[in-house]
Amino acid sequence: MAADELMATHKSHRAPKSGPTMKKKSENDKKKSGVSDNKQQNPKAFSFTSADKAKILKLHTVEKEQKRIHLPTIDRNYGDPPPFVVVVQGPPGVGKSLVIKSLVKHFTHQNVPEVRGPITIVQGSVSVLHSSLVFSYILNEL
After folding, report:
1. Is residue 61 part of a domain?
2. 130: domain range?
3. 127 lies in a domain?
4. Span 110-134, mean pLDDT?
5. Is the pLDDT reported for residue 125 higher than 70?
6. How many CB atoms lie within 10 A of CB 75?
7. What distance in Å separates the CA atoms of residue 108 and residue 121, rounded to the nearest whole number?
8. How confident is the model at residue 17 (pLDDT cuts 50, 70, 90)?
């Protein structure tokens, strides 16, 4: 016995030659190579008869797209934005008034001798940067 007869021979792979798998693979190969099967039946029927008309239509579509991109945004905000409210809450004698006094001094560089009611601070002069803060303190009672 020879060595070739003792060795097992493996069956070679057979590529599909017909059927849906072959169609899919051939379509993928054509897409990769850039060849298209679907030729237009009558290409003259879908072309422009006038170069000027084609140019005008192209300009019109480009202008419509640019107009869509550069639409002005409408500012729907009415008046000034509402203020940010900072509420300091706690039992008596924990330093609520001290916190409010220090915050007012931080933003305005002015001393407040006594805190009575809510204190409103307006920041910025430009309407875009304009914001206001309201400091108020509340006891633990509800």
Report:
1. no
2. 84-138
3. yes
4. 82
5. no
6. 7
7. 8
8. confident
Residue 122, pLDDT > 70, answer yes
Asked if residue 68 lies in contact with residue 62, where contact means CB atoms within 8 angstroms, the answer is no
Residue 53: pLDDT above 80?
yes
Q: Is the pLDDT of residue 1 over 60?
A: no
Asked whether 102 and 86 are in contact (CB, 8 A), the reply is: no
Q: Is residue 9 in some structural domain?
A: no
Q: How far apart are CA 7 and CA 74, in angstroms?
A: 82
Query: Counting runs of H as helices and runs of E as strands, what totals does the chain give?
Result: 4, 3
Domain membership of residue 14 (yes or no) is no
What's the structural domain count of the chain? Answer: 1
- In this predicted structure, the answer to whether residue 61 has a pLDDT above a threshold of 90 is yes
Which three-class secondary structure state does DSSP give residue 72? coil
Residue pointed to by tokens 């809450």: 89
Nearest 5°: the CA angle 90, 94, 95 is: 100
Q: State both tokens at 130.
A: 């304009």
CA 88 – CA 52 distance, rounded (Å) = 72
Residue written as tokens 């706690």? 90
